[in-house]
Amino acid sequence: MSTSEPTAAYLRTALGIGALLVVLYSLIVLQQVLVGVAVALLLFVLYLLWRLVRELTRIADAVETDDERTDAGTHAETERDEDTAAGRSPDEDGTDE
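Now predict its structure.
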């Protein structure tokens, strides 16, 4: 995830500068404060949605990794249960020592 951190910093900076420019434009040229505030608020909401999608993706990846580990553990338990049902002890591997 370290490769996306510079991208996130760049995005935050670009959105902040963009919002500031829009607010200044609305104050100086249009002389309407609410236009600038509305656009800046829209940019902020879009940024929050982007962060939400990133976090949901991270959570989904973590759950998927956890499911893969759980499936691997279930597979090992199934093999152990099959060995027990066949009359072999769980620590018996079929080799003579």
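The mean pLDDT is 79.
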